[in-house]
Design a protein that fits this description.
- This protein is of the alpha/beta class and about 325 residues long.
- Helix content is about 50%, strand content about 10%.
- It is built from 14 helices and seven strands.
- A seven-stranded mixed β-sheet has the order 2-1-3-4-5-6-7.
Amino acid sequence: MNASAAPEPRAEDRPARLTVGVVGAGRVGPALAAALRLAGHRPVAVSAVSDASRRRAAELLPDVPVVEPARVLALADLVLLTVPDDALTGLAEGLADTGAVRPGQLIVHTSGRYGTRVLDPLRRAGALPLALHPAMTFTGTPVDVQRLAGCSFGVTAPDELRLAAEALVIEMGGEPEWIAEDARPLYHAALALGANHLVTLVAQSMELLHKAGVAAPDRMLGPLLGAALDNALRSGDAALTGPVARGDAGTVAAHVTELRKHAPGTVAGYLAMARTTADRALAHGLLKPELAEDLLGVLAEPPAGPAGTTGAAGAADGPQGDDR
């Protein structure tokens, strides 16, 4: 009788291969470091400023000390720079000036906008630059680590580091997708157009349903939006449905009237998206040309708010505030 195979060692019991540091404990950095820990690497330091970032670090990276950014570089073989896009250039320059960069140190940023050129100050100091952007929305909670399974990462790196970059993505559970340096802004714009604007559209839709008396807008929208997303990913423009794609100008005009009455801040967005939908439906043969003229006439109306105000002024009646 054959002896039983030895059990597979747990990730936390394997010898650590790289020490990992995080500069910027927002929603992304701690999750990626936690995923790397599961792959056998060892988080050793994190920088965090706000109370919220300290709480995230404590939840996702327990027992990992919170230190200054320069100290993170001094302790880690692999450093994750997970700060807002607009802060990345200054951070790279500032860290290079500290003299804490070590030759051969892997420094990764997670910005979708930038490739590796933004890390040139660190590269000149001896660092190995990588751009690994997870195409995922993050909550700052442990669920993010699970969501990395199968998540695509936009990868940009020097040719000699390509295999290392792709290996790190795979270890985090992701799927590497190579993005050329100069294509990064377009790549990021595409993701923002789909994901960020989707949240705005869904939130507006739920607010309108609530005003219409629907008790559980999320329950109503869930199956509909899930099916629409699945159809769109499978079939692209062929999945277009609804009054715009059908050329129902009267229905669209009724929508605009009701939105102006009850939610003037949504009119400009509705008209803009409807025009784009009409153009795509017409180009793909879904919208009949003989119906397009009346429909486009409705959509060409200026997005006036109540009492003759413009759409921009009417937007002041919509949801306000910055909750990032």
